[in-house]
Amino acid sequence: MTVDRAPTACIGLSLCARRNYPLMETFTRLGMEYLTAIFEFVTLSMAAFLAGVLNAIAGGGSFLTFPAPIFVGMPPIPANATSAAAVLPGYLSGAAGFLPELRSHSCRELALLLSLSVIGGVAGALLLLVTPSEVFSFVVPWLLLFATLLFASAIKSASGVSAKPRPNPLGKSLPRWR
Questions:
Q1: At how many degrees (to 10) do helices 107-130 and 76-97 cross?
Q2: Beta partners for residue 167, in sequence order
Q3: What would the pLDDT profile of 40-85 be if each residue is shown by its tens digit?
Q4: 173: β partners
């Protein structure tokens, strides 16, 4: 005996979906899409929050904001652009927090550093536009490993730094921690 309508009481959506009720299959599919969207939202929100905390403490929040979109299914190149846009407000607020230290440098020094940063950013963006997605996907884990090693070595070397200031490449002494 075949029943053409969905039962009024069903033990679980999977049981109804197994009996090939089109209405229940639609509800099951929509339910899974809804749960997937909630999972992606929670994952990306947690990564953004933790990246903000990490950037406020020591930097390196991109180690979270870049892999999180890839984890939820975004291709690597758009994930990289999204990550860069996501951390930009934090970088701007961080620069605003260091205004007293920035004022200790001349406008010429700041213009030089800013121009080099813009040139590097534009060159990287143009390189990213012409790089095939497969090549970028292959190179990214190695770049993240290299960045992690640099980050770890900077922490290790900073632990042995003396209290006296040392010269920086621009010729001024680095400010002491407050």
A1: 170
A2: 173
A3: 999 999 998 998 888 877 778 888 888 899 999 888 888 888 888 8
A4: 167
Neighbours of 140 (CB within 10 A): 17
> Exposure of 111 by Cβ count < 10 A (0-12 exposed, 13-18 middle, 19+ buried)?
exposed
- Say how far apart CA 165 and CA 160 lie, in whole Å: 13
- The answer to whether the predicted template modeling score (pTM) of the entire model surpasses 0.70 is no
Q: Is residue 50 a contact partner of residue 65, using CB atoms and an 8 Å limit?
A: no
Tell me, letter by letter, the H, E, C secondary structure of the chain: CCCCCCCCCCCCHHHHHHCCCHHHHHHHHHHHHHHHHHHHHHHHHHHHHHHHHHHHHCCCCHHHHCHHHHHCCCCHHHHHHHHHHHHHHHHHHHHHHCHHHHHCCCHHHHHHHHHHHHHHHHHHHHHHHHCCHHHHHHHHHHHHHHHHHHHHHHHHHHHCCCCCCCECCCCCECCCCC
Cα gap 38→50, rounded to integer Å: 18
What local confidence, expressed as pLDDT, does residue 154 receive? 75
Tell me, what amino acid is at 19? Answer: R
Give the torsion sign (CA, 19, 24, 28, 29).
Answer: positive
Tokens linked to 114: 């800013």
